[in-house]
Amino acid sequence: MDSTSDFLHLHRLGVDTHQEPVVYMRRDCHVCHAEGFNAQSRIKIMTDHHSIIATLNIVDSEIISHQQAGLSETAWRLLQAQEGEVATFGHAKPVESTAFVRGKLFGKLLNDESAYSIVQDIREGRYSDIQLAAYITACAGQGLNVNEVIAITKAMVATGKRFQWSGQEVFDKHCVGGLPGYRTTPIVVAIASACGLIMPKTSSRAITSPAGTADTMEVMTPVTLSFEHMREVVEQHGACLAWGGSVNLSPTDDVVIRVERALDIDSEGQLVASVLSKKIAAGATQVLIDIPIGPTAKIRTQEAAAHLQKLMVATGEALGIKVHAITSDGTQPVGRGIGPVLEARDVLTVLRCEPEAPTDLAERSLVLAGALLELAHKAQPGEGFKLAQKTLWSGKALDKFMAICESQGGFTEPELAAQQHTITASQHGIISYIDNRFIARLARLAGAPEVKAAGVEMHVRLGDAVEVGQPLFTLHANAPGELAYALDFLQLHPEAVRIEEEYL
């Protein structure tokens, strides 16, 4: 049993701790002395109605009194606390599953039992961010074999909610990422559902990119849906575009993603478990996976793509779904916008069939939608692209997209950032190289995805001829300081876009 001591009054400090629940106590607090608490201790906080586990930070200032315990914003929300509410405190039980993490760090393989134990403890909030970092590090790179990936995926599905759709074929798609601006999902979902496919799409927020699909959709419509609301939208329109974390589908994934983002790590095995656990939880029976390949994409070689493809298919088969993996060109960003608002504007120009719509984004979306339509036998083999194109050009896809947005809470037209600065060509020549990773990092330095309107707007593509002074890309930021920060970084790394004279 957890030991407890005297009470303290809860005080909301208004501190953002990157979603980790944190409690603050004075070093000379009687509870600290009585319980022997130290900085980074894992503490159980109990009120009359709720309890959570939080990490302790020690305070040596007057921001809280001896009779108070301060809470971070996340701890306050999870505990559903009230100002001045009485709480008691005790040492949290040791997290036994960390022994499996230590074993993995030293080469011991995970099995169904150990994977479930780890995932369940993460799900229950028993892991500190330090312990989460150890787990993520143990799984990094190609540190998980296929059986371990299957075990983790099973555990992630088992510890969350799961949709059932009355035996219908249910479709989903996913891109493994690495390409800035790759925002095909809203377009594909609109086309596919307009053609009668069931597609309950849940998406993640950004991990290491300037925007995830959920971030982009959120500037146009609410994506934080309840389980029941998501079901209603899908039953009404055949599809939705929701944030997976809000409906408790594979809830461990969003906890892991938060720390992966801080570490700038997105490992192969965890990626597979993350993607497929959410697809299975959403009720998908067939999933289309797009794997872009390029020198600065997430997947850089055909060999790496083949390995990931094999891992995806095997994991899906073990969990009872069909996974169809394809590869695509990953040599440069997709569309023009990189960042939630800029990507949303690209999506809308494609759905509205506007003349300035980026052709590469439209083309990729039609290829993927066409493949899904063929898998669903809505089109004959080789005819899916034409049906997808007809659906887009007829306006049916736009109508479906707007209907989904209205059901999710309404549509909002995205607005550009207040600060903009255009980078121009310093020489004439041909665009021979665009660094995906650098462009993505530049967009993040400008404020994306937290600042929705921040990011990078591309004006050129590989093979374009440019003259001196011609725009290459434009930085978007909401504040002068964020814009200056991105520009300073750009001066240190000027070759985000390379121009070769000798090709002229």
Description:
The protein is an alpha/beta fold and 504 residues long. It has 18 helices and 18 strands. The strands form 5 sheets. The chain has a 6-stranded mixed β-barrel. The termini are far apart. The relative contact order is 0.10.
Element layout with pairings:
Layout lengths: L7 E5 L9 E5 L3 H6 L6 E5 L4 E9 L8 E4 L1 H7 L6 E6 L6 H8 L6 H12 L5 H11 L6 H13 L12 E5 L9 H10 L4 E5 L9 H6 L8 H11 L1 E5 L7 H13 L4 H14 L4 E8 L8 H17 L3 E8 L7 E2 L1 H12 L7 H17 L8 H10 L2 H13 L10 E6 L4 E6 L1 H10 L9 E4 L6 E2 L4 E7 L2 H13 L4 E4 L4
Parallel strand pairs: 1-5, 2-4, 7-10, 8-9, 10-11
Antiparallel strand pairs: 1-6, 2-5, 3-4, 3-6, 12-15, 13-17, 14-16, 14-18, 15-17
Features of the shown structure:
18 helices, 40% helix, 4-stranded antiparallel β-sheet
Largest beta-sheet details: 6 strands, mixed, barrel
Q: Please identify the structural class as seen in this structure.
A: alpha/beta
The main sheet orders its strands as 1-5-2-4-3-6
Proportion of residues in β-strands: 15-25%
Provide the residue-averaged pLDDT.
92
* Through-space gap between termini: 76 Å
Shape: globular
Sequence stretches where pLDDT stays below 50 over 5 or more residues: none
The tally of strands reads 18
Proportion in helices: 40-55%
Radius of gyration: 24 Å
Figure out the total of helices.
Answer: 18
What does this entry show, briefly?
The chain is of the alpha/beta class and 504 residues long.
